[in-house]
Design goal:
The complex is a heterodimer of chains A (97) and B (268). With 97 residues, chain A is an alpha+beta fold. Chain A has a single domain, classed as Orthogonal Bundle (Arc Repressor Mutant, subunit A), CATH 1.10.10.10. Chain A has helices at residues 2-10, 17-29, 34-46, 70-94, and strands at residues 15-16, 50-56, 62-68. In chain A, α1 crosses α2 and α1 (2-10) crosses α3. Classes of the chains: A alpha+beta (97), B alpha/beta (268).
């Protein structure tokens, strides 16, 4: 689940680890520990869903920037559609008449 | 623990697991600078984080067709005089599997391993073995007047390996265990206990046996070599070996796929 949320956070444009964590926190997922976030990014990278490169910042040291690959975009689109179906099913069944 | 110490510890743990630490450490350092939070809060202990990172990079191994077990011990019982050491012990180990055998002193761990290796016979039960076997005893197993290279040649010859190939294989395996430099020409009696145990472990793996039986083979290892030992076990496992490790270090059980507890209450 976190992996898909990370893909979602990257759908708004490339970013680096700390900022991705901030995006997730601001979207209401609560704070995501670095110990969880970076392994997720490494996993997504291994699966070819995100691409990365190191870039020197204007200030401070180099950062690793992540962006969605074409495959990552396709995976996110599919997951998002599946999720919408799932949520509407659950909402329907939990509705109090 | 300062940020620098934590990062250094992470780098060492990754290095031990044969992952280049540079990028992971640089990324963690950048995160810690940005967030201003302490590393233990953000990432947890360096060892645990290193393990998670390694799993993420390597991925979990795809499930494979396990086939027949390489080693199958069925209903093994053993008595010495009136003392019952083992009662109805069962164990199956498949290719690509590492099993830890635990139990207190006198619970029959070593006896069980010797029975699996065919060095002792059980009073009841049987052991089926598919493939060749390498055995590393808890101590002994080396000859004091032979150098490590001579050990490689001797054991290699028994397994049908040529002299030069034996030495090359032995030296490569020894180097992976943080073998001290220049020890290839020293007689074994001049080696430290830990180094002799490393020699034992290398000898067990010589000639690429299908099944490895290791009886607390890391006695006298320093902590670094101990981690290298598990690295070696995982490499064997990934190469499709069946591995049994007798251990008393309960904290390390998560390193094995399966645990066989020989404590008396657990024997049926």
């Amino acid at each position: 689940m976190l992996d898909l949320c990370v893909l979602g956070a990257l759908a708004h444009g490339e970013s680096y680890g700390y900022e991705i964590g901030q995006r997730l926190e601001k979207s209401g997922l609560g704070p995501i520990a670095g110990g969880t976030l970076y392994p997720a990014l490494l996993r997504l990278e291994r699966l070819g869903l995100v691409l990365s490169d190191w870039r020197a910042g204007t200030s401070g040291p180099a950062r690793k920037y992540y962006r969605l690959s074409n495959e990552g975009t396709a995976t996110l689109r599919q997951a998002s559609a599946d999720w919408a179906v799932f949520v509407s099913n659950v909402t329907a069944i939990m509705e109090v008449p | 623990m300062t940020v620098e110490d934590w990062l250094a510890a992470l780098a060492a743990e990754l290095h031990r697991r044969r992952i280049d630490p540079a990028e992971v450490v640089a990324e963690a350092a950048a995160h810690l600078r940005d967030s201003g939070r302490p590393p233990m809060e953000v990432f947890g202990p360096p060892t645990a984080y290193a393990v998670t990172v390694v799993d993420s990079i390597r991925g979990t191994a795809p499930p494979r067709d396990r086939g027949a077990p390489r080693l199958q011990a069925s209903n093994i019982s053993k008595r010495y005089g009136r003392t019952t050491v083992l009662t109805g012990v069962n164990l199956s180990v498949h290719a690509g599997e590492a099993v830890a055998v635990i139990g207190g002193n006198g619970s029959g761990k070593s006896t069980f391993l010797r029975i699996c290796a065919g060095l002792d016979s059980p009073d009841e039960g049987q052991v089926r073995l598919r493939g060749t076997i390498g055995y590393c005893p808890q101590d002994g197993g080396t000859a004091g007047f032979l150098t490590p290279d001579e050990h490689f040649v001797l054991v290699g010859a028994g397994r049908g390996i040529r002299r030069t190939a034996s030495i090359a294989q032995g030296r490569t395996a020894a180097a992976a265990l943080d073998w001290p430099r220049g020890h290839a020409a020293k007689p074994a009696r001049h080696l430290s206990g830990g180094t002799r145990q490393k020699l034992n472990l290398v000898l067990a793996g010589l000639g690429d046996p299908d099944v490895l039986l290791l009886d607390e083979p890391y006695q006298g290892f320093d902590n670094g070599s101990y981690l290298d030992f598990w690295q070696q076990v995982w490499q064997w496992r990934d190469a499709g070996k069946a591995i049994v490790v007798v251990t008393h270090r309960l904290a390390e059980l998560d390193r094995a796929d399966t645990v066989l507890d020989l404590s008396p209450r657990n024997q049926r």
